[in-house]
Design a protein that fits this description.
single chain; about 280 residues; 5-stranded parallel β-sheet; 14 helices; about 10% strand; SIS_dom_sf
């Protein structure tokens, strides 16, 4: 039954507007927590009006959220995510290993989605851009900034002219000055979205810079501002979303780049290793 609801939420009829996409993605990510939701709470979390949520549910064939909940109750689908907000239950499940097992299962399920991304045309387009660009710039914000810096550091071992840009100069001129043709911006942003992310992507494309956007399924403007959009599963469940899936995707991307570049990577690593020895940053 839960699968039927999820399939309905993925249908084109359920995703006609940006509000539809936001509501559908939110409900799909939080199906297990739906018994604890109200139309008002969904509207607040998504950023639309309560009336919009009601109209959306009626278009899906439900008289309201209660009718959708009744359909959910008829399902045998149960997960550990139904303990949202019950910290006593969370603590008990954590001590008994149930919570960790549920988190691991969620990561396993999400890795299945990551595999689907790696098999998509967008994935190969992103790899081609990361290999073929004269310069690659990496940008990210807030709590995902560190993950993007890791990606920039790893990519710089595989190819030259990779730079993480923090925007502290207030202009992103290193990306946008047009001094070098064939540039690529790898922009990573997830909910909550940074104010600078979309303007940076728009300005980059206007300047002729190819944009790869790595984001999650809460983003409704990904296709509007990027040349290649890679959309990951968003946060689910009562706990904070972690970086494991994101790092996995980035590691797979680095591996693919290395394979495509072949012996050029070995030559670059040899050069970098010699320089590390010269400057003494590592033990011999």
């Amino acid at each position: 039954m839960a699968r039927d609801i999820a399939a309905k939420l993925k249908s084109p009829d359920a995703r006609q507007t940006k509000s539809d996409v936001l509501i559908a993605n939110y409900i799909e990510r939080n199906l297990a927590e739906l018994p604890f939701e109200t139309a008002k709470s969904i509207a607040q979390n998504v950023g639309v009006s309560q009336m919009t949520v009601g109209r959306y549910l009626r278009r899906l064939g439900y008289g309201g959220l209660d009718e959708l909940k009744r359909e959910m109750r008829q399902s045998a689908h149960r997960t550990g995510w139904q303990v949202k907000g019950n910290f006593e239950r969370l603590r008990r499940d954590a001590r008994e290993g149930k919570l960790i097992a549920a988190l691991i299962q969620q990561q396993i399920d999400d890795l299945g989605h990551i595999y689907e991304i790696t098999m998509s045309p967008q994935w190969n387009q992103a790899i081609d851009l990361l290999i073929g660009a004269e310069e690659v710039f990496i940008a990210a914000y807030q709590n995902v900034r560190g993950v993007a810096q890791y990606f920039a550091s790893q990519l710089s071992y595989a190819r030259p002219r990779v730079e993480f840009v923090d925007g502290l100069n207030g202009t992103y001129v290193e990306v946008l000055d047009g001094s070098v043709e064939n540039r690529c911006l790898f922009l990573f942003d997830v909910r909550r979205f940074a104010n600078k992310a979309r303007p940076l992507a728009e300005e980059a494309r206007a300047a002729g810079v190819k944009v790869i956007l790595l984001t999650d399924d809460a983003c409704v403007w990904a296709q509007d501002v990027s040349d290649v959009a890679l959309v990951m599963p968003g946060a689910r469940g009562p706990l904070w979303d972690g970086a494991a899936i994101t790092v996995s995707l980035m590691d797979l991307m680095i591996s693919h780049v290395i394979v495509e570049l072949g012996d050029k990577v070995n030559q670059r690593v040899d050069r970098l290793t010699r320089l590390q020895d010269v400057f003494g940053d590592f033990e011999s």
